[in-house]
């Protein structure tokens, strides 16, 4: 579970996955629409954007999974600027049904900053059920 504190001091939690596979073009937002938890609305499952509710240091983590033979890449962006990525290159290993990559970023955010994922490779294929996005507020 990932959690954030809103400006009012109440806990704002979010943890999201994909409900269906995505086939994305480069620079297309990755919209995680399967919301397991999103108290106080930190994450918008309509556009895939997290909006910081407090100034401070946050940690975000994401995982992308593809089918064997597929590939995908994502950047994490803060207000339109890339600040990290995860890349799963093509794997034709017949013994593996899924391939995955994950990464994390620790970011200093101001209230209202936007954080989201976008495809970093043309024709990225992201598998549902095994791909997710979340984060945690660490400190001021």
From TrEMBL:
**Pfam families assigned to the protein according to its UniProt record, in alphabetical order:** C1q
Its cellular-component GO annotations read:
collagen trimer
Outline the extent of the C1q domain: 7-140
Q: Which SMART domains match?
A: C1Q
Protein name (Swiss-Prot/TrEMBL): C1q domain-containing protein
PANTHER family for the chain: COLLAGEN IV NC1 DOMAIN-CONTAINING PROTEIN (PTHR15427:SF33), EMILIN ELASTIN MICROFIBRIL INTERFACE-LOCATED PROTEIN ELASTIN MICROFIBRIL INTERFACER (PTHR15427)
Q: Where in the cell is it found?
A: Secreted
User: Where does this chain mainly localize?
Assistant: secreted
Write the record's keywords in alphabetical order, separated by commas.
Secreted
Q: Which InterPro entries match?
A: C1q_dom, Collagen/C1q_domain, Tumour_necrosis_fac-like_dom
Q: Where are the transmembrane segments?
A: none
Native organism: Pinctada imbricata
């Amino acid at each position: 579970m990932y959690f954030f504190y809103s400006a009012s001091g109440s806990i704002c939690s979010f943890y999201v996955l994909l409900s269906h596979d995505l086939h994305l073009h480069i620079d297309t937002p990755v919209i995680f629409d399967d919301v397991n938890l999103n108290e106080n609305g930190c994450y918008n499952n309509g556009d895939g954007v997290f909006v910081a509710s407090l100034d401070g240091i946050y940690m975000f983590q994401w995982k992308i999974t593809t089918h064997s033979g597929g590939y995908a890449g994502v950047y994490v962006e803060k207000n339109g600027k890339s600040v990290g990525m995860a890349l799963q290159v093509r794997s034709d290993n017949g013994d593996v049904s899924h391939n995955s990559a994950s990464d994390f970023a620790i970011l200093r955010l101001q209230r209202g900053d936007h954080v989201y994922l976008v495809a970093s490779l043309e024709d990225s294929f992201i598998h549902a059920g095994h791909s997710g996005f979340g984060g945690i507020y660490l400190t001021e």
